[in-house]
Amino acid sequence: MAQILAPSTQWQMRISKSSPNASPITSNMWSSLLWKQNKKVSPTSSAKFRVMAIKSDNSIINRLEGLLNLDITPFTDKIIAEYIWIGGTGIDVRSKSRTISKPVEHPSELPKWNYDGSSTGQAPGDDSEVILYPQAIFKDPFRGGNNILVICDSYTPQGEPIPTNKRHRAAEIFSNPKVQAEVPWYGIEQEYTLLQTNVKWPLGWPVGGYPGPQGPYYCSAGADKSFGRDISDAHYKACLYAGINISGTNGEVMPGQWEYQVGPSVGIEAGDHIWASRYILERITEQAGVVLSLDPKPIEGDWNGAGCHTNYSTKSMREDGGFEVIKKAILNLSLRHKDHISAYGEGNERRLTGKHETASINTFSWGVANRGCSIRVGRDTEKNGKGYLEDRRPASNMDPYVVTSLLAETTLLWEPTLEAEALAAQKLALKV
User: Fold this and answer.
1) 207 and 254 together in one domain
2) For residue 390, is pLDDT > 80?
3) Torsion of the alpha carbons at 97, 103, 105 and 107, rounded to the nearest 10
4) Residue 360 lies in a domain
5) Domain check: are 158 and 183 in the same one?
6) d(CA 395, CA 188)
7) pLDDT-based confidence at 428, cuts 50/70/90?
8) pLDDT tens for residues 75-106?
9) Does 347 lie in the same domain as 198?
10) φ/ψ (deg, to 5) at 376
């Protein structure tokens, strides 16, 4: 992951009232994805990704794009708000749109809304209404103007958080005075895999076959090594436009797999920004005709899995003497290893095998500059005596609200017994 220097100064997204002349994601952005033909479309190549469309001056596509790219701001004060929430699987993002009478700058200005929870696996059919509470807003890179994306969490009509609402519990932890005093920073490395639509096989791989072994694909360039770069770049720009604190991106070890980093973010902002970035990535891959997978081990065998490494520090870790604080945090994390593993993503046991830059799911370990450990500490942190730790256990499909708040809870609020602490320190060779 790229080095994290300082967090965003914005704990809550605020939307400018200025409006561009058109939606930032237009056909021009996709020019390198489009294969122009003379009213002729050939089958999708299995070896190289292309989005194909018929282009002509009077085509239906052009007329539709013209309407999609309409700038409505000169004609109305009304905006479109896309309400986004997490569905019943805990990883699926859902959304629907509504008109708001004027531009807004804060989620408190937005009305609550509702949806049919029986259709998302979150409520029974005879009592299906679930209430959406707006929590964070971002500029909409698809509609442009003053239009917004709204991250919401879900409640019963009586005001109780539903079981899949992990944000509510995270917000309670981050509002604890002990946690707030330590100003927790997060940098999250989101890995994902791009799949061909009809065969659900990685982008750039021959259908039913395999590319050459891993090695030349990581951070690579070239048509025979890098597959899906335009999607990664489009996502990068869309996140920057939206106000998401994205800090970098790169091609990953397995061909057809990519990573982007979000952070440094403070507290609950980390989860809001990851979920907004995932929604934008889903929309971009939808437009490109590619399937997004957050499976932690999309291809079995000698291929890297997909993780969501989480870099974490507190105020005390970042100050002089912080390395000792980091080691105390590692001790606490070792004692709650099973609790963390159970909350770090479905199917993670297929990824955490002790191979392909992972530690075994059953054994906690830590090390300096060791990517085969549960917790990695960077060389700069060791050298400077302060910095951050990297939790390498979370899977690509983890819930960022759960992971970030659990790290804060374990390292700042949870206290082990003296006996357990002493045994763990001896086992891990930690002097704290």
Assistant:
1) yes
2) yes
3) -30
4) yes
5) no
6) 11
7) confident
8) 999 999 999 999 999 999 999 999 999 999 99
9) yes
10) -110, 135
SS3 136: strand
- Report yes or no: 184 and 408 within 8 Å, Cβ to Cβ: yes
Q: Assess contact for 84 and 152: CB atoms under 8 A.
A: yes
Residue 226 — left, alpha, or beta (φ > 0 → left; ψ -120 to 50 → alpha)?
beta
DSSP states of 63-132 as a string?
Answer: HHHHHHT---TTT-S-EEEEEEEE-TTSS-EEEEEEEESS--SSGGGSPPEEEEGGGTTSS-GGG-EEEE
Would you give the DSSP letter of residue 413?
I
Domain that holds residue 75: 34-162
CA dist., res. 333 & res. 311, Å (int): 14
Number of domains within the chain = 2
d(CA 390, CA 144): 36
Task: Specify the DSSP element, H or E, that contains 150.
Answer: strand 148-155
Cα(239)–Cα(256) distance, rounded to whole angstroms? 20
> Any idea which residue has 């989480």 for tokens?
310
* Three-state secondary structure readout of 371-406: CCCCEEECHHHHHHCCCCEEECCCECCCCHHHHHHH
Among 301, 239, 249, 303, CA closest to 272:
239
Contact between 140 and 147 (Cβ < 8 Å): yes
Please say if the pLDDT value at position 237 is more than 90. yes
Q: Is the peptide bond before 264 cis (omega within 30 degrees of 0)?
A: yes
Q: Would you call 417 helix, strand, or coil by DSSP?
A: coil
Residues written for the chain: 432
CA atoms 327, 332, 334, 340: torsion sign: negative
Residue 128, amino acid: S
